[in-house]
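Model the whole thing, not chain by chain.
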Amino acid sequence: MNHKKEEVLSWIDHAKQEGTILLQQFVREPSTQMNEAGIQSLVAKKLDSLGFSVDVWEPGGEELTKHQAFISPRESFTGSPNVVGVKKGNGNGRSLVLNGHVDVVPEGDPRDWDMDPYSGEVKDGRVYGRGATDMKGGNVAMLLAIESLVRCKIELDGDLVFHSVIEEESGGAGTLAAILKGYTADAALIPEPTNMKIFPKQQGSMWFRLLVKGKAAHGGTRYAGVCAIEKAAFVLKEIRKLEKNRNDRINDPLYKDIPIPIPINVGVIEGGDWPSSVVDLVKIEGRYGISPEESVEQAQAEFETYLRLLSEKDEWFKDHPIEIEWFGARWLPGAVHEEHGLLKSLKKEFEYVTGRQAKVEASPWGTDGGLLTNIGHTPSVVFGPGVTQMAHFSNEYIEVDRVLECAKVIALTIMDWCNQPKED
Amino acid sequence: MNHKKEEVLSWIDHAKQEGTILLQQFVREPSTQMNEAGIQSLVAKKLDSLGFSVDVWEPGGEELTKHQAFISPRESFTGSPNVVGVKKGNGNGRSLVLNGHVDVVPEGDPRDWDMDPYSGEVKDGRVYGRGATDMKGGNVAMLLAIESLVRCKIELDGDLVFHSVIEEESGGAGTLAAILKGYTADAALIPEPTNMKIFPKQQGSMWFRLLVKGKAAHGGTRYAGVCAIEKAAFVLKEIRKLEKNRNDRINDPLYKDIPIPIPINVGVIEGGDWPSSVVDLVKIEGRYGISPEESVEQAQAEFETYLRLLSEKDEWFKDHPIEIEWFGARWLPGAVHEEHGLLKSLKKEFEYVTGRQAKVEASPWGTDGGLLTNIGHTPSVVFGPGVTQMAHFSNEYIEVDRVLECAKVIALTIMDWCNQPKED
């Protein structure tokens, strides 16, 4: 067996150039929301060449859009296909979903980038560009892992189900569509950027929109108005206190190295349309972290109550309550128990490949693992080569060597997991 | 003489219905920037009917656009005419500019209005709508005053020069164009909303734009980024301190009843484009008040230095300095000395009409009076029927009785001023 393992690892070592080129191709596809068709066609071709039977479809239909876990900022997925490839095993082995999303967040202010955000430039062993770390590097690691097994003629008892999904960055409609089409398995592996740490628990999160009111006035007599920006600044400060309260309650050791396990992030602010007027309305949009130990409903209620009670700290809010709307995106939290077989396989093979002890933590962000675990009954573990601190940043990059190392761990984990008999 | 005065006042009393209808017509023209042609055609027709020779032109040309006092957010004034009407006196009397702007600020959030913002609805003796108080009510007061003199066949020695200008709300390019065309006089009266107080001094102001930098990150690990909104909130707090410093220096008794003589108003905030990302750039736009006792350059330098020194309070700004740009609009401050003849006429006639002592203050906002006084050598006094607290507000309105009262004071002031011999 170790001989076979070594053959696989050696194949991956020799595939560095091929892997780099594939990653560059992926990064050069600017697959922001609505623009995923190009990269999906590359993935479909690759899966087909590896002997997978490939299903390409644009998600839709009432089963999806009326599902209680469905959430999406858009009306239609036309032009934004999902891709799933299935490779049947010899039978009776444990099946595995390999899940990766192809959508990327917008590139932000182009002046903050040292290069074209979709250049796929290679420098000092890194591939640069939006999505390199989140999570096209992870997708390439999975594809290299599968290719190594194919090239080294490794037989598997269990099925492999490859999800190449859209819409992870705004709530997981792509993964939900794959689940509803029956593409589930005994477990799932998701190579989101964990910096090679293993995350059996994932933070959930959802998007909120706040409307904070002021009172308009001429700027020359601004004292006659109430500045909605100043009220919003107060609300933001209070949100920091709520964030602290919520995080102080978390004592799971998996979170011990994470400064803020369930952050509340404010990502958009907008107010006013005339420099000489006092602003009468500010819109704030953000992301609210949800712990694996609480329900979405509990978490929402805590935020809503907190905002309502701000009228006790500032009378203004009594007659001008802050409006809150939950919109756009939501990622369910997820958790896999400590003794889960996939977790064991991953830890073992990580140590085999790297010679280091695996680091197990809880993820500071939501992934589609929440949907797979809770809705698809497919316990999910997150483990990937990217670095969280690079995700959504300017000058995003990934180390090619990390992609190869991750591919090795995934390849051996597949061999270990899929060749174990199914549990009853 | 008093007999003539009483005849004029009585004519105005009987013109209430006519004045109300004219004001409604004005308000129903939604004369935001670029949309001034409709109301200007009404004004031109009215001036023509009162025996003025009327000049209608679209401002432009290098003499205007290269002038050191020129400032405007737009490239061209096509479709936005200025109107000036001149009525020659019998000779040797003092001439008077009557200056009013027809542009209005945008109506803001329509949900804050109880009616269509351009309805011109009459209720409880008030005309409602954007621009009613700032300053279409003032314009109607001037036109009623002139009409009363015409109808009562009052002879004037000095010339009347009626400015119906565009662009006051964004820096005075309309009035500057009128000045450069030679439409100046021995003094000017501007019925901006002073709530029937007399303002011989006007605050200047200019627009600024700040760019405050943060550092992007994934919202799930927001501690790895730097939130530009939080930095902007700090900057806004510091701006309040600068505002206090600047206002603490003002000891002119004309400002004693004004809570903030030269405010710094923030009217626009914008940052971020994704709820799950840490915001890396916030744009702030606002209006910076300038005292009649300081130069524009001094005032600018104080703000710029203050922002630069924020790096001593927060190291972040050392490597990420706040960018400042002065853009769009600027109103020069203006002052007329205490013994000016127009000021005396106005006070005297105010007391004659109302039986109350005139209240003299400094204006909390800029007007085109700064340009008329400093560039047009036409000392300007501001006195009008509107209420500052209504200007730029939702549900803006003006009291019809105030418009009539103001028309009376203006009519008698014209009779007094224009029939005094020119000073050498």
